[in-house]
């Protein structure tokens, strides 16, 4: 019998231990296509579960409000230096608990309640924290939104400029959660300069692609770069704010004491490990493979008659409009889940359906690339998706079971990083 990976957890709380084991098995045996998910390495998992969990560390390295920080300061300094080196930034703050708190810190640093802020509309591919109405950022600030063109699903930079000059936002966000095309950071910088706005590039989804040279970097153009540390960067669930030196004090003050108390030191350690991994040549190969896989998968889906927003992808993400297939996104996503293919249902630009029952699904290639799947496997993945969507339309559960078995058979040959099961 194989020893349990968490023997103390098993002995103390077998119910919880069984759920962790079940999740390990699920992640190992399903094809994970949610573009914001990934597999962290065993090293990142280990760093995230260390005794650093036991330490409170309010403040910053060398300027703490608690004693006993000799090792913690070095851990955080290591993460900061690695972030600065990897992304080529003047300043990095690795303390934000996640992406949304990181973005809230940006507001605290540069705006006051009621000020105008501007970002991509959520239904068009933006993020809640870019001033969307149901978010605190849309309640405390006056949010105005830009979108994409109906005819091609691309950002109209002339329209963005016109809106920015009319509204003069304090903060202009670029980036989002469902953008399959390359962001023109230089164009956004020109618009922000003309409008007198602070440009914030939210690269949470594409940070790993930027680190690996598979997507242009916003660093030469943006005042602030906000990112999570998971997704394509393959780190723990955390975030970073990077900026020009002139904004360093404002950003640090906004994170602590503005929004947070003590940082999560175990997460900081995991971030440091992930940044070290992302600086290796193997990660550069990984980032380019993510994009190659996404392009190959998009091409295979187009061959099977799917409608893709913007007609394809430049990065890790594909947004599919299932209207022509006669299957709502939610129905398709749940059917795919039963087939062992994990996606999320998602609105598409100008979607006539409601957000909780939209027309599309969102998929991506970070996780399957981490497992070692290549462009040669993408036609099979597209075929599974096509068969599962057709099965969803017909209510054909046996067909979904067949697909699930096929998925499991393939994945058995490609073990997931950091998982103890195949």
TrEMBL record:
Gene3D superfamilies xrefs: Aspartate Aminotransferase, domain 1 (3.90.1150.10), Type I PLP-dependent aspartate aminotransferase-like (Major domain) (3.40.640.10)
Can you give the residue ranges of the Serine hydroxymethyltransferase-like domain? Answer: 11-385
Q: Where in the cell is it found?
A: Cytoplasm
**Which residues does the record list as N6-(pyridoxal phosphate)lysine (modified residue)?**
231
- Which GO molecular-function terms appear in the entry? glycine hydroxymethyltransferase activity; methyltransferase activity; protein homodimerization activity; pyridoxal phosphate binding
Q: Where does (6S)-5,6,7,8-tetrahydrofolate bind?
A: 122, 126-128, 245
Look up the record and name the pathway of this protein: One-carbon metabolism; tetrahydrofolate interconversion; Amino-acid biosynthesis; glycine biosynthesis; glycine from L-serine: step 1/1
- Annotated SUPFAM superfamilies: PLP-dependent transferases (SSF53383)
Enzyme Commission identifier(s): 2.1.2.1
- Enzyme class, UniProt record, top EC level: transferase
Q: Which cofactors does this gene product need?
A: pyridoxal 5'-phosphate
Where are the residues marked Plays an important role in substrate specificity as a site? 230
Keywords, ordered alphabetically:
Amino-acid biosynthesis, Cytoplasm, Methyltransferase, One-carbon metabolism, Pyridoxal phosphate, Transferase
Transferase keyword on record: yes
Q: What does this protein do?
A: Catalyzes the reversible interconversion of serine and glycine with tetrahydrofolate (THF) serving as the one-carbon carrier. This reaction serves as the major source of one-carbon groups required for the biosynthesis of purines, thymidylate, methionine, and other important biomolecules. Also exhibits THF-independent aldolase activity toward beta-hydroxyamino acids, producing glycine and aldehydes, via a retro-aldol mechanism. Thus, is able to catalyze the cleavage of L-allo-threonine.
Q: What is this protein called?
A: Serine hydroxymethyltransferase
User: Which organism is this protein's natural source?
Assistant: Streptomyces katrae
Protein's gene? glyA
């Amino acid at each position: 019998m194989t020893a349990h990976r968490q023997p103390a957890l098993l002995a103390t709380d077998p119910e919880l231990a069984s759920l962790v084991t079940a999740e390990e098995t699920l992640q190992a045996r399903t094809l994970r296509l949610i573009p914001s998910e990934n597999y962290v390495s065993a090293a990142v998992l280990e760093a995230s579960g260390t005794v650093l969990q036991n330490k409170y560390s309010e403040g910053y390295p060398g300027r703490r409000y608690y004693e006993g920080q000799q090792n913690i300061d070095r851990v955080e300094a290591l993460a900061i230096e690695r972030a600065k080196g990897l992304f080529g930034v003047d300043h990095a703050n690795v303390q934000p608990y996640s992406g949304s708190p990181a973005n809230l810190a940006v507001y605290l640093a540069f705006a006051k309640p009621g000020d105008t802020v501007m970002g991509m509309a959520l239904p068009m591919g933006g993020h809640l924290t870019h001033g969307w109405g149901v978010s605190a950022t849309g309640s405390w600030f006056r949010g105005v939104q830009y979108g994409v063109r109906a005819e091609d699903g691309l950002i109209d930079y002339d329209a963005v400029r016109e809106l920015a000059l009319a509204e003069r936002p304090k903060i202009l966000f670029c980036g989002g959660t469902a953008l399959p095309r390359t962001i023109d950071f230089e164009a956004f910088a020109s618009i922000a300069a003309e409008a007198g706005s602070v440009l914030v590039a939210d690269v949470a989804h594409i940070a790993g692609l930027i680190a690996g040279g598979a997507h242009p970097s916003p660093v030469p153009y943006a005042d602030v770069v906000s990112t999570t540390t998971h997704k394509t960067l393959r780190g723990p669930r955390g975030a970073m704010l990077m900026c020009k030196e002139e904004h360093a004090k404002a950003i640090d003050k906004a994170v602590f004491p503005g929004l947070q108390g003590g940082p999560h030191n175990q997460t900081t350690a995991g971030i440091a490990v992930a940044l070290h991994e992302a600086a290796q040549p193997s990660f550069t190969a990984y980032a380019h493979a993510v994009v190659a896989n996404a392009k190959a998968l998009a091409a295979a889906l187009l061959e099977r008659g799917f409608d893709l927003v913007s007609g394809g992808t430049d990065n890790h993400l594909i947004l599919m409009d299932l209207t022509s297939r006669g299957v709502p996104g939610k129905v398709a996503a749940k059917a795919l889940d039963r087939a062992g293919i994990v996606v999320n249902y998602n609105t598409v630009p100008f979607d006539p359906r409601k957000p909780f029952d939209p027309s599309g699904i969102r998929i991506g290639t970070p996780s399957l690339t981490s497992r070692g799947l290549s462009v040669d496997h993408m036609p099979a993945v597209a075929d599974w998706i096509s068969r599962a969507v057709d099965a969803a339309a017909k209510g054909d559960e046996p067909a979904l079971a067949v697909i699930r078995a096929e998925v499991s058979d393939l994945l058995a040959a490609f073990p997931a990083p950091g998982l103890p099961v195949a």
